[in-house]
TrEMBL record, chains A, B:
SUPFAM superfamilies: FAD-binding/transporter-associated domain-like, FAD-linked oxidases, C-terminal domain. Residues 15-26, 353-365 have a biased composition (Basic and acidic residues). It comes from the Archaea. This is FAD-binding oxidoreductase. Belongs to the FAD-binding oxidoreductase/transferase type 4 family. The lineage of its organism: Archaea, Methanobacteriati, Methanobacteriota, Stenosarchaea group, Halobacteria. PROSITE patterns: FAD_PCMH. Gene3D superfamilies: 3.30.300.330, 3.30.465.10, Vanillyl-alcohol Oxidase, Chain A, domain 4 (1.10.45.10). It comes from Halomarina salina. Residues 1-26, 353-400 are annotated as: Disordered. Residues 92-273 form the FAD-binding PCMH-type domain. Transmembrane segments: none annotated. Pfam families: FAD-oxidase_C (PF02913), FAD_binding_4 (PF01565). Keywords: FAD, Flavoprotein.
Length: 553, 553
């Protein structure tokens, strides 16, 4: 597992995956020809010299803390577009004053006590993959900021095979967690796009979305109990399969984003590798036919593991179709029996809406396909080919390409930043009745904002998750940026996007979390009284207001 | 729909279903012979005379309020055993001082304002079916208590066919709600045992459990948004299929039990009647084989609509088996395709654990069985034969008998009270690894408590809901009571039951809610810091503490 030193200081992922000259030239050529962007520059890449960070205002009196500039620089930002840009330019002004890396949970209460006394802000930090400013804290009004990195707490502490549950420490990353579970023949099967680097604690704190398109869409659906350290003490919920006793305490910690305390561990529901799988890629000439097919599938209570509808531009961007058709990537998995018939029935629904497909693929003991039972390691090589880490042995075909592309996408952001291309994604969820108008408005207004700010722009859409009552549309945007002005350009476009979601009463975020970027819109999304109530909860658990100030609340 | 006048003042359900002489003699004979209880008395039935209630301490200045003694008596209790007993003896000491029955939501804010000013406790009241003292408030420290009956607000206000969702007022009862949805060809498919009388608002406030044994086990799983009136103003969450934005505001209102405000409406996910169904009853010689089969089914991610494992005494009590075998009532339903193969695979799992069954029954367009498409009305006749209301056309066979018995059971409580039999049910949820020890301890300690208090006792168990990580066991207890001492005897036995659940870190309640009966145990179940945080939320939304004081918090 990575200790962090092998990661890029500024970009997504590993340092040796930072954009090469060839990557840059190829992508430059593609955005110029494919998207028609004006000629893009090859910006000067960041050097390896020591980063410039402000002088530390505080020095925590604990052996597990450091004020080393390199470490502080690496804990300054998440991995959103403005984060990558500022890192790219070596701007580490908002660096925390110190980084704490506790070796055991019992280190944390003392740190929080000290911070409460000294009025130092504490920013919980897992994989540092936030795209919403979740770990960036300037600490105005505080005597300093300490980033609390949980990654030493990375063990699977217990496995209950009878109940199929595991007790996991917050700092375990996706591959680290699954490597430990694989030794027990189990998997969590929660694969957010940040899977390689993000942590279990981060998933819980941000209600991370996984790869399941239905049913187990968020980490919420796997959590049995949570343990957190707050300034007012430890909070630990009971391990329960379910309960009807009062407002669910797990749901209060799920999505708490470090504002009440730091999540240190939890019990999660785990499962063996699925024995049967069926996959198909369905082509629709018209996006709206694909929408209707998807709606009918999910309303008929099909529960596909994968049900990603790619709009024509999204299919083009991922090089899966170039003729203007939309693609529905459909996958079923099962522990108990073949998925062949379910897939056939689902394809019949697609046919009713004009969908066409090549032969679906089936895997499983009865399907002639090899059943992969090998343990999934957590080593770096495997994490790099994360299709495997995501439980996918078969990486051929459209779905395989898609999955590789899914985990590779964040690496491409590094390259885009380095050639002056503004790139971002935003997502929401909305009921089916409102989706067409919302979608039209997003295209119109975000398109306008990109043209106004950047002179051009490209916007694509896919559904990442679908529900009986509505889809979770996910938008990717690309625009030619003016080097030096990227963050301001991004801010204007982001504002247009979030304002549009708000106007249609769609959610501010389906799985990217609130952080600082979405905070104002989140406050509009929830009832005023609930915001007041959350703030009063915070005052109870964090009387000095040291926990991740400015995020969420 | 019932206006309430045709309901029994003291017992479950309709007045004309109060126990007849024949009912009483038959049940008396059965408990004496079948359970070996000492001879039971035929206690004097309550008369129809005006109830005795204390003088009203307050008279709310609103046209929709009354201090009529009959109405006050009818709003004194829920329908737990101690409630029935006290009603049976005509003890209405804890009657509210007045009953408010607002005709529109806009009546409520003024009532709460007045109550806050006058320090009058407000107790939200739906169907009055609480078994945990949720509507019984003595109002110590308050100048009076007003029961806020929501049943005039009983309409389905909007139906969104595209998203399959409906906007429902809080006071709609199960049959009333489904009758209105049936006009649109839709159903909610949430059938708690209290379905005939309980209300949508009550379901949300108490996180009611429905008949689905897996997946959609609680009303929580159907709720898209909630609207509530609190003393600090209206709280309304956005209609969203899902969100990842902060701690879920719906989850804060789900289970709030009137402690923050009164729920007035919400959007719920609805669906058409299932087109395919398969049912089977599997017999196991040994209860623990049934437990293992059930665990394997749910861990293999089968999602049966019905998966009720009845222990040998439960099977006997329901007259479904008398030979000491346990029964698994297994049912699948589907909108999209036949359930025949799924049932076959599930039965194969049961066979691996020694299960035996007669031929399963299959319904659906392809199965030769009639597909019932008629609307489900909400009239009284139908509600009385609630098997139909619960969407079950086929009421033959073990499952049909079980379902009739399920909805009839509460009526039997009336009769048992009238012949000096203590009767109660309690439920929990616990992980599979802890279930055997918990079950043994419950049998031992609740058995001992019944013997000590009553000289004898009978305890049976079934699983009402099952999860991959654990079951929700539901216990029914019967004991010969000493007339006049029933409530004290019940209290001691209940204490033994709740203490045992607590000792094994099982939940205090899987779907009966917290109310006043479970409050102390609930406070032990949740983390201290969370209880403090909930109390601070309450102070924010209900500064004068008028909302259902003593329940939940």
């Amino acid at each position: 597992m990575s200790t962090g030193d092998d990661l890029s200081r500024w970009g997504w992922g590993y340092a040796d995956r930072e954009p090469s000259e060839a990557d840059r030239r190829e992508l430059k050529s593609r955005v110029e020809t494919m998207l028609g962007f004006p000629e893009r520059p090859l910006l000067e890449l960041p050097d390896d010299g020591a980063p410039t960070v402000p002088e530390s205002r505080v020095e925590p009196p604990f052996h597990f803390c450091t004020t080393d500039p390199e470490v502080r620089a690496r804990h300054t930002y998440g991995k959103g577009y403005p984060d990558l840009v500022r890192g790219f330019y070596g701007e580490y002004g908002p660096a925390p004053d110190a980084v704490a890396r506790p070796e055991r949970e019992s280190d944390i209460p003392d740190l929080l006590l000290w911070a409460s006394d000294e009025r130092v802000a504490i920013v919980p930090y897992g994989g540092g993959t936030s795209v919403v400013g979740g770990v960036e804290c300037r600490g105005a009004g505080y005597s300093g900021v300490v980033s609390l990195d949980t990654r030493e707490l990375d063990e699977v502490l217990e496995v209950d095979h009878t109940s199929r549950a595991a007790r996991v420490q917050a700092g375990a990353t996706g591959p680290g967690l699954n490597a430990q579970l694989a030794e027990e023949g189990l998997q969590l099967r929660h694969y957010p796009q940040s899977y390689e680097f993000s942590t279990f604690g981060g998933w819980v704190a941000t209600r991370a979305g996984g790869h399941f398109a239905t049913r187990y869409t968020h980490i919420d659906d796997f959590v049995e109990s949570v343990r957190a350290v707050t300034p007012a003490g430890v909070l630990e919920t009971r391990r329960l399969p379910a309960s009807g006793a009062g407002p669910d305490p797990n749901r209060f910690l799920l999505g708490s984003e470090g504002a009440f305390g730091v999540i240190t561990e939890g019990w999660v529901r785990v499962q063996p590798r699925p024995r049967h799988r069926s996959r198909a890629t369905v082509r629709f000439d018209d996006f709206w036919d694909g929408v209707e097919a998807t709606r009918e599938l999910v309303q008929a209570r099909f529960s596909p593991a994968n049900c990603r509808l790619l709009g024509p531009r999204e299919a083009m961007l991922n090089e899966l179709a170039a003729d203007g058709s939309s693609l529905l990537l459909l996958g079923f998995e099962s522990l108990d029996g073949p998925t062949v018939e379910t897939m056939e029935r689902a394809l019949a629904v697609c046919a009713d809406h004009g969908g066409e497909w090549d032969d679906p693929t089936h895997e499983g003991p009865d399907a002639g396909g090899a059943e992969a039972n090998g343990p999934e390691g957590g080593g770096r090589e495997e994490a790099q080919t994360s299709g495997e880490s995501a439980g996918d042995d078969d990486r051929t075909g459209t779905e395989g390409e898609w999955r590789n592309s899914f985990f590779e996408a964040p690496y491409r952001f590094n390259t885009l930043v380095s050639i002056g291309v503004l790139v971002d994604t935003f997502e929401t969820a909305v009921t089916w009745d409102r989706f067409p108008d919302l979608h039209e408005a997003v295209r119109e207004r975000v398109g306008t904002a990109m043209r106004e700010e950047c002179g051009a722009g490209f916007l694509s859409c896919r559904f990442t998750h679908v529900y009986p009552d509505g889809p979770a549309p996910y938008y990717t945007l690309l625009a030619p940026a003016d080097p030096g002005d990227e963050v301001e350009q991004w801010r204007a476009i982001k504002q247009a996007a979030s304002d549009t979601l708000d106007e249609f009463d769609a959610t501010t975020t389906h799985h990217h979390a609130v952080g600082r970027v979405h905070r104002d819109h989140y406050h509009r999304e929830i009832p005023d009284g609930y915001l007041d109530a959350l703030r009063s909860m915070k005052r109870t658990l964090d009387p000095e207001g040291i926990m991740n100030p400015g995020a969420l609340l």
